[in-house]
Amino acid sequence: MPYSYSTDVLGRTMKRQVLLFVSVLCLRSALSQVSYSIPEEMAKGSLVGNIAQDLGLDVKRLLVGKARIHTGDNAEYIELNRERGLLVIKEKIDREALCAQTTPCALHFQIALENPIEIFPVTVEITDINDNAPVFKKEERRFEISESAVVGSKFMLDKAIDPDIGLNGLQSYTLKSSENFVLKMHSQSDGGKKVEMILQKPLDREKQEFASLLLTAVDGGDPQRSGTMQIHITVLDVNDNAPVFTQNVYKASVKEDSVKGTLITKVSASDADKGSNGEISYVIGSSVGIIPNLFAVNENGNLFLNGPIDYEKAKKYEIDIEAVDSGGLSDSSKVIVDVGDVNDNSPIINIISSSHAIGEDSLLSTVVAVMSVNDHDSDNNGKVQCAIDRNIPFSITSSVSNFYSIVTNGNLDRERSFQYNITVTCSDEGVPSLSSSVTLTLQISDVNDNAPVFERSSYEAYIVENNTPGVSIFTVKAADADWNQNARVSYILEDSSVNGVPVSSYVSVSADSGVIHAVRSFDYEQIKDFQFLVKAQDGGSPPLGSNVTVKILIQDQNDNPPQVLYPVQTGGSVVAEMVPRSADVGYLVTKVVAVDVDSGQNAWLSYKLQKATDRALFEVGLQNGEIRTIRQVNDKDAVKQRLTVIVEDNGQPSRSATVIVNVAVADSFPEVLSEFTDLIHDKEYNDNLTFYLVLALAVVSFLFITCVVVIISVKIYRWRQSRILYQSNLPVIPYYPPRYSDTLGTGTLQHVYNYEVCRTTDSRKSDCKFGRAGSQNVLIMDPSSTGTMQRIQSEKSILDEPDSPLEVRP
Ligand SMILES: *[C@@H]1O[C@H](CO)[C@@H](O)[C@H](O)[C@H]1NC(C)=O
Ligand SMILES: *[C@@H]1O[C@H](CO)[C@@H](O)[C@H](O)[C@H]1NC(C)=O
Fold it and tell me: The whole model's pTM is what?
């Protein structure tokens, strides 16, 4: 027996084969039964056994008996070599194909002989050789195992199949290179083995995500054969890792003027998990003191500025940032953001107190304004310097930090500058520097420090005599540099006297316009000039004043006719010049002497013969008034010669006077007398005229006296009042009577008032003059005077001055 079973596993099969073998031997002895045992897979023609010998037969017998193999329906794997009496392999035998797992595996056939027929059964047992390796149905197997799988979890593995039997069949499995898994085999009732993989150590996807194991099945043959299967394990992720920030604290800084969207910093967290378990989102945790939404973080961990920040409000932000994965695991970190100052705040100027106006007499270092200045920036950006214009008499000082005072540092003069615009400019030291400014308007209030000043140091004015009383002569003007009441100039006539008469009776000064009015009508013949002082006084307290000399020059007018001094024209007597008949040509008869109280041309007199009894006899010297004969007097010439000489002045228009010169051409006085008596022939007419004149004068005198009394009393009353007004030491306040209405803005009624007084005075004067004239006339009115003369005199008295006895109006 070339084959023996050595393993216990197959012990039972072996016992059966031994029993069979014994029975075959017994059968052979009876039926000549033969058994063989050969391994499978022998090559064709290989010897199975010497059947002739084993049956105890001759080879001849085999040939004669036509020995053959009878298999029935079965395939013939073995053939008989009759010549040599051998059984050989006809076809390769595969035990697994023939018997599968059945044991023992044997071929049963008969050797049949003829002549005589003999049947010999033959049994060929086929023994197994290890010609098959274990085989897995699939070459690989995939598992997906969660990393959270617990230790002891079982995973069924595919079995391998080995058709060989016995020791040559599948014996065991091995699993290569895995520390996480072990194999466990379970024998099954059919003799097969169930194999499973057991987790002995937890998986960690984060350490090893994929594993490749090799499952090997081996049989027990010699040589040993094996089969393998690849096991691919994918560890499935479980959210077992929280995100982790790369830093606990991030530091960043950002300028306060950064715009929305500025990237501040990037935070980063990592999560060892995979897929959605490792997806991190960042959120800003809510924390105290941070304006919501001031910062934003995106999915990449970029922290952005999301709103305006202000260094002056917060210098630092601490932001809590959380990283959260989709499983809700999180980590937190802190971002400390330092806000960088930028010079974005201008200084703020606050006027704490300021004067609207100060007096021009304010002392040096008078505080005009106090202000506080603040800059919200820090360091140099918040350091502030303030300045004001150097060209004004003010300076800015700082006593306490951030507080500034504006004080005067020069003399103020409202008359030079009544207002100052003080611009305070405060700049910080940032780069670039920011500044702000305020302008204070300061009024300089007036102090009465300027006296009125007349436009000229003295005035001279001219007025033509015989002016209308009340006419304005001239205006003085004084200016006061001060303001308002301090500059309100009043004009005052200073008291003085002119020729012993108060100057106020000559002129008046309008208190607020400075117009000088003539109070009376001037007469050049009485006064040629006069001067007085006008004082200009302002309305300040105390008032300041100055005075000026005003000289009034009266100009002559041809208002006086010449006056004949000789020959004297008296009413009571008739004077006649005697010319002897023997007088020669050029005999000086007489000389008309006349004067004119006017002056200049107005007093330049010329004489002309106006009428003459005999024009051919006399002539008058044009310049000297000498009356001379121009021819020889003869006897035919009348005794009584009457010459009318006209004396004219050179004024424009000229005035004249006539004088009648009676010349007696005679040698003896009686001759003359007889001739001249007829001159007073109409005495009766003169008497009547005298009566009427006396009556008229009496009436006029009565009216005059009444007027004088009334006027004087009124005048005295008003004069007293004006004295009170002008001599008061108080500041001059123009006096306005109750009826006053200021229509032109200047108090004019006072002038009107003065004017009325002037008129009154004037009319009074006129009345006086008239009265005096009348009374003079009365005195002159001598009954012996000639009627012609008296008539002329009366006319003249009413119309004109009384002084010249004879006048003919031009
Ligand atoms: C001050 O400012 C006011 C208003 O701006 C202006 O009318 C005035 O002329 C200024 N005064 C001076 C002295 O500059
Ligand atoms: C002018 O006025 C001043 C003060 O008002 C006075 O002192 C002075 O004497 C006056 N001058 C004349 C010439 O009167």
Answer: 0.47
